[in-house]
Amino acid sequence: MTDDHTNKGVALRRALGASKPPERITQEAFEGDNRHLRRLARLAPNERANASDLWTYTQDLRYTKIQGPLLAYLLPFCLEAWRDDLRGFDGYGGFVEHLYPVLADRHVFDVHLTPKQTEAVSTFMRESILEEIDEQRGLAYQGMNARPYRWIRALTSYGVLLPDVQRIWTAWWSLDTIGRAIAAVQYISCLMYSENENPVFSPWTQDGGGGPPCLWGFEGHLYEHRWLEPNVTFLKGTLNATGVSEVLSRAVERLTGQPEHEVAARVLTDLPLCITTLESRCAELPLLLQTAQQSTSSLEWSI
After folding, report:
1. 94 within 8 A of 55, measured Cβ to Cβ
2. What does R_g of the chain's alpha carbons equal in angstroms?
3. pLDDT above 80 (res 281)
4. Are 218 and 100 in contact (CB under 8 A)?
5. Among 29, 36, 81, 291, which residue's beta carbon has the most beta carbons within 10 A?
6. How far apart are CA 184 and CA 43, in angstroms?
7. Is 226 left (phi over 0), alpha (psi -120 to 50) or beta?
8. Among residues 40, 126, 22, which one has the least CA distance to residue 77?
9. Residue 52 to residue 105: CA distance in whole angstroms
10. For 74-110, what is each residue's pLDDT tens digit?
11. Domain coordinates of the chain in residue numbers?
């Protein structure tokens, strides 16, 4: 773990006001055995939690009464594992799938955390997503493990949890880093091209998966969820063909001299040919994101 990540973890713990675990653990273990809770409570702030212990803890959080002080102490360990998964470290994926519905269904931000604590979590998650965006490289992807899937799913899922996706989006579309310009081209290509014509994402195959990322697909078990209304309202007012075209043009300019420039320039050249698709999808995406995602396979672009 880098010093920067360590500092962010320290700042998160300080803001949550839980530098040590509660003296007494009253959190009920869903399956009756609370040994995982004792192990988690013994963790030092610079340690990583066991993935199995975190997964079991999410079951406690989903199905039994939440002990607030313990949650405040363990949430940084949960979020650090979420960030590790976002950044591509194996081992925490199963846990993350259950963390999202805990945060969404149990109303953790509205009920169990103070506004100050919620802001600390929001800051940590936003900065983690932007860090992954900043490190994007490449505009040619194939297969189900392509790196852009991670940040796109995290951004999309964030919109279910917290109402300030605007803060990520605005920072990203500032194109202040090479990674943000590359990520903009990755995303915009999904708004422009049909599934089998995208020059950035090779078509889906039965053996390898892949294809363009689904821009409304939530991560984890968020099947009955939708974007929060402030996020939908923001996207409806932001996402349009004129604005996307301007961002794409700036991204291509930003990538001058970079290995990704040739593909990015090709996408910009194709823009007039794809303008009808772009206009349609800019209008559709907020509507898809505000639809409960019980089955993402039932939702699709109209063109």
Report:
1. yes
2. 20
3. yes
4. yes
5. 81
6. 39
7. beta
8. 40
9. 21
10. 999 999 999 999 999 989 989 999 999 999 987 889 8
11. 1-114, 135-303
Rounded Cα distance between 192 and 230, Å, is 25
CA angle 203–207–211, rounded 5-degree value: 20
* Amino acid identity at 37: L
Burial (Cβ within 10 Å: 0-12, 13-18, ≥19) of residue 95: buried
Neighbours of 233 (CB within 10 A): 15
The DSSP symbol for 2 reads -
Determine contact, residues 124/79, Cβ cutoff 8 Å: yes
Burial label, 182 (beta-carbon count in 10 A; 0-12, 13-18, 19+): buried
Burial of 147 (C-beta count, 10 Å sphere; 0-12/13-18/19+): middle
Residues 6+ apart with CB under 8 A from 120: 11, 12, 15, 16
CA distance 124 to 136: 19
Count of C-beta atoms within a 10 Å radius of residue 267: 22
Strand partners, 201: 141
Question: Facing residues of 141 across strands?
Answer: 201
Q: Categorize the per-residue pLDDT at 296 as very low, low, confident or very high, splitting at 50, 70 and 90.
A: very low
